[in-house]
Amino acid sequence: MFVLVSSVYEGSQQVFDELQNDPIWQSLKAVQNNQVIVIEENPWLDYSAYGNKLALEKLEEILLAK
Q: What is the pTM of this model?
């Protein structure tokens, strides 16, 4: 599971920290199996062709590291 936690918007990390304490969150299989990957906005929310290329390269890097 990929979770985008903004580094731009104040409070995003705090909201994510609170989410991690929620019983529903903790019951998710991806969470239980340590399969949550936290990402930031760039390049994931850059919808240009170049941004898509960077996102695919980053995805490859993440998946090969697992």
A: 0.79
